[in-house]
## 1
Amino acid sequence: MIDVLMVVPPPGVICTKFSKGIPPLGIGYILSVLAQEGFTTALYDFLMDGLPLSDLELILQREKPKIIGVYVSTIMYRNAVRIAKIAKKQNPEILVVFGGPHCSALPHESLTDGADIVVRGEGEYAMLEIAKAFIRGEGQTDSIAGTSYKKDNKIIDNTSRDLIENLDILPFPAYDAFGKYPLWGSIATGRGCPYQCIFCAGKNVFGGKYRFRSVENVFEEIKILYDKYNIREFCFVDDTFTAISKRAESICNRILQEHLDIVWWCETRADCITKDLLELMKKSGCKQLQYGVESGDNRVLRDIRKGTTIEMVERSVKVAFEAGILSKCSFMIGHHSDTPESVGNTMRFIEKLIKEYYVHASVGVNTPFPGSDTFNHAKELGIDIFNKDWNSYNFNTPVFNSKYLTAQQISSYFSQTTALINNTKEKYDTNDHIYRVSPSLFTLKPKS
Ligand code: B12
Ligand code: SF4
């Protein structure tokens, strides 16, 4: 019998080819914090293991947890609810706790659909207090900051929890639970993002300020993964790893000073990259940058409050290209103010970036995730969200009509852009370039 079983549900639909690779860091942190206080735990990741949900009954019979904690993203929501029902059916005494980006935005929905408690936002210490109260009787489960719960068919929201100010106090994630993940050198060197993009659901969990760990603390984690787990490929999952360039520089310098033979990649923004920084990043093993470019039209970029322009994007992609770093650029079709003309600009911009800088481009349908400004202010933005089946929130399915484009038009432009990317990639042989800049990261072979 264990105290807490943490579960990552299978997604309602599969949405990325990388979906299986990266370990659920948030759950890793929660497991570590619980273990530090002597709770026994286990992790089952249905996304990673590809297990059918029907296996849950067997898992529950084997582990007999007192609490089940479920990670809830929008695309996983329906399966998270199924998990809650299966768990309660098998053991009505079990406490079902939901946490993660989707339920942080819509806690009441989760409570109505079967969760006993929802943790809104950062989860480590709320979950610890829940376990202490429920399992050891230390405190009350109904007075924990950052949670919402159900009592006598009423839903009660406790006050929000302060964000952890000093992230260095957290133990490192429970790496031993991550043995099966192929890309598991993934590290969050900080939390939160200071930018205001209206389509982004990130701030629901970690707020609108970038809090970061000390370089020493980050480096200690890298060293453990390097020495103890033999990891050579790292991914910094911060929303904008280079938001504070001096700090990014310090991390690169530490990697170089210690002669670590690693490759790594990160997410960033076009306005957070300079030539000097890129060259240092390259020297320290950076092979790839992920930019959320979103649109190839400056009016739309202004309307979605991205804070970057196509000129900035081109400049930073060019510098990365010259430094030998692959740029991955993601775009969305169907922003609230997208018109046929702006979508045309996006398509032309994508083509240019692939042709001139061998950019690895991807496109998705703009999706108004709960908690994003697009979702919260849909009416003011002139969009009519007609589909709230969360399985459709998969970046392939338009769920609204805008003032300028119907869902059918968005769908058709999305297909055209996908085709354009595939054709241009084929013609300009981006795979060959990817292979040259980062052979160890990709299994792709250059064309002979
Ligand atoms: C790395 C990453 C991925 C990785 C790994 C995801 C994972 N399993 O962790 C991969 C590539 C697989 C991925 C895929 C996708 N992702 Co993603 N991803 C991220 C990213 C950049 C970092 C996640 C992370 O590690 N954060 C750091 C850890 C420490 O935080 P955390 O996971 O949120 O966990 C904390 C809390 O949420 C909470 N918590 C989490 N689980 C639980 C459970 C319980 C019981 C409790 C109490 C608390 C709790 O406590 C944790 C510790 O404080 C976030 C952006 C972000 N800023 O978080 C987007 C993000 C989570 N992804 C997002 C999206 C949309 C996707 C995709 C749909 C994209 C796509 N088209 O494929 C897929 C869907 C994957 C899926 N099946 O759900 C959205 C989610 C929006 C939403 N409402 O669902 C985010 C928020 C990006 C954004 N800005 O909008 N993603
Ligand atoms: S999209 Fe990226 S830069 Fe914009 S608010 Fe979200 S995390 Fe920050």
Note: Residues 440-448 have pLDDT under 50 and may be disordered.
## 2
Amino acid sequence: MSNTELPNAETGLPSDAEERRAIPPVICYPNETLPKPDLPRYLAARETAQKTDEVVVAPRQAACFRVAAGSFFRITSVEGAQVGDLNLWNDADLSERFFSGKTRALHGTHVTAGERLWSTLPHLRPMATIVADSLGWYGIDSYGGSVHDVIGTRCDPYTGNLLGGGHYHHCCHSNLTRALADELNLSLADAERHVHDVLNVFMCTGFTRDTGQYFMKASPVRPGDYLEFFAEIDLLGALSACPGGDCGSEHTSDSAACYPLLVEVFTPESTALDGWQSPARNGYDGSHGRS
Ligand SMILES: [Zn+2]
């Protein structure tokens, strides 16, 4: 071993620490080969669409909704700045659900128009495509924050109990659990295991540069702002109006001002998507190397 490989006695750092830190990163999943959504076609179909359903999500509660493949759904801020926690399932098979981690790996920490919400393995296909985002202008702010994140999980009473004790019942996790239980006539325990990491609609988040901690800041959303999706498969959705409100101060309590969220479903004319089909499940043969 040469002296240059020994850690510096004062700093404890290897002599080539800066050199190693200076290695440039590479993108884990270059996404140029991702199947691209046919956005012009979706938007042309949207022009023909009529509103066919509407659900208002009460503050600190969640509600379910269904969207047929080929229809659109829009989440709108009404009355005041409010963040929403979104779960999506294949309406015919709850085991296929939104995969926040892989969506993050493929598109980045926050999603916007033109990007897609992907489903869990072994399905790994687009469940929904974002077709419009009125907060698309926000970009990445000077803190490294952006909106509509796939880095958070969902506020939940277990973490609340871990960090502060107590039993708070209106975290998004519990709201989504109750909504799914009511929608499918399941016990709370049966519903809870289907609740998963969310798309944080309208939430403004990032990681601190110095400590790498997950942060939130007051959402830039204002009444009238919306995020709209094209349903690639038949969807069951659940949306929670987070007890954090605009998530500018705290969650897991009733202290923040909270507002409703509106979910609207729009269905295009029957011929508008002639020949279009839901994406196929992932093409991997599933053998995992054994025949
Ligand atoms: Zn929440």
Note: The pocket of zinc ion is lined by residues 85, 154-155, 171-172, 242, 244, 251 (CB under 6 Å).
